[in-house]
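Technical note accompanying the year-one report. For the benefit of new consortium partners, we illustrate the data format agreed upon in the data management plan: each record pairs a sequence with a structure-token string. No post-processing was applied to the example shown here.
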Amino acid sequence: MPDSLTECSRELPLVTIAMPIYNAGQYLRMAVLSMVQQTYQHWELLLIDDGSTDNALKSIKDLTDPRIRIFQDGINKGLAVRLNECIDMAEGKYIARMDQDDVSFPERLARQVAMLEESPLLDLIATRAITINEAGDITGEFPCALSHQDICARPWQGFYLPHPTWMGSATWFRRYLYSVPGPYFCEDQELLLRSFRDSQFGTVDEVLFAYRIRSAVNQKKLAKTRHTVLECQLRAFIADRQWLFLVLSIVVYVARVFKDSATQLIKPSAKHGYKNNMVLLKWNKTLQEVSSLEKTDDVDSF
């Protein structure tokens, strides 16, 4: 196939995929292969190891695709620092996010590139996403909003723009960057709080991403993340003198903490009952395509 693949590997990519990893474990190979099997091919993948100790990179050592660039320095600097390094090194016009344990559907990059090319006023877009568990079973859909107006309608509730699905202008990312040190597990929400008034966001109205959520919830981590988000909101709303937003953010925080506590007392049902058959078919097809790459030598041919 491949004169087009040979040619795209020699050209500057249109899309840079930023993928810092830390102890990625068993899911890293599937995450990377889901990018290799994208229908859109003009990309580079910047895979920066943040001082991992699990040797997960060994699982992809056979992938000789020249578009995959791996960096290791043995130091743990944190996600925000690594993302800013990706932004600094990016050669693409657009920068896309990807997490180490998630899966992109084959059409993800193509759909996002098309939307950004057709709507040049957009700075940052996401996609709709399903949630999956450790076994890869669909457990639901990630909350999302489609238009900028809807995404930013209630900043005190946060922005429903799932971070690992982002793609946006490299110029926009370089204008704002991630705050360092990164706020505890909410780098994305802090960045959106800083930028939403002077930016344009959107969402591709199609499920193109599988967002892995672990079944065992770390309550201390969740509580600290909730508190950090509130701190970011309070600083932003005080700076903007948005007193109503400030009060509403506190109300939302209290309600979510109460809900988290109640959830601990109720054993969740093991049956998820996801009913969207079209998305189920797309997900099963994606799994088959990624699995076929894992079982063949095709990954070495790029």
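Partners are asked to follow this layout when depositing records. The longest helix spans residues 243-265.
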